[in-house]
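Hi Y.,

Following your request, here is the sequence exactly as I used it, all 350 residues.
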Amino acid sequence: MENKKNILIVRLSSLGDVLMSIPAVYSIKERDKKTDITWLVEGTVSRFLRYQPFVDSVIEFPRRQIVKGFKENPVEGLKGLIQFIRRLRETEYDIITDFHGIIKSALLSRSARGKRRIGFGAPYAKEMSHLFYGEVIEGNERRIHKVERNMLIARYLGVSGDAPIPPLLAPPEAQTYIESFLEREGIPSPFVAINPFSSRGNEYKRWDIENYGKLIKVLSDKLGLCSLILWGPGEEEEALYLKEISGEKAYLSCPTDIPQLFALLKKSKMYIGGDTGVMHLAAFAGVPVLALFGPTDVVVNAPYTPHSIIIRRDLRCSPCKNRGCNDRKCMEGITVEEVFKAVLEMGQYL
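Below is the corresponding structure, written out as tokens. Let me know if you'd prefer a different format.
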């Protein structure tokens, strides 16, 4: 790997999956600091990656703009895609690594100029994406944590040792924004970050919002803790409702992008929420994480931190991806009492 100085990382989305690729990318950079790392990604997580010192440059794939262009005018949409591909091809890379493993990422990997293309084979590649790589990395276990799965690529490139937990940074302006918010709103420290939401289309992974309200009250009454309710686009109304039913020590977070949210999480005493990208962001922020898992495979998606407790039901039907499940025993079986008990156990990490 000594002569490999220019690597393109392809991991487009989502927030949690991008974060779980970071240890592998960081270890590649640490093995040879002369290596130039470019990351191809989509969405607002690009702002977060741009500030990390082990990422030399970021190329944002403008998926939404291109899709919108095709819907409004196919010719303009095609022009936008061609313009992006031209930009992508401006640099020739020594290695292109596809951590994503779907047909979209594989096609973008093929569109870039590179001497070697590396990606996953069975059982991790999806949509026949493995057909687009010159070098394929096979796996022996289907159920393996995504951090360890991504480390297969790093080890293929010569990295040894365990997956690291990289020191991630928030831009100074994000820290200033959060500090100003906390001071302006008079939010006392310490506070617990509460995230009752899940990504769009994954509502079946959510614990009932009324349970979060009861938990926030218990945290206040028995421990004197304040809770800060996190929310994102389209979630403010429900977040306001949760604040209303949770008592006077519940506060509503300010609007945040990913760097700002990272800065906010670093200020919190503890994170409580379900399996989401925000949970992984909290883990990489070094915050003790209390995660409520339902249908998600905990082996594959657990928060990558030694400072966590996971609450879940060991059911025959779990893990699953049945978004239309009417039972939801895996989530509804979790009680406020056992979550509070886990909060007390979290004291070992505080």
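The radius of gyration is 21 Å.

Thanks again,
Q.
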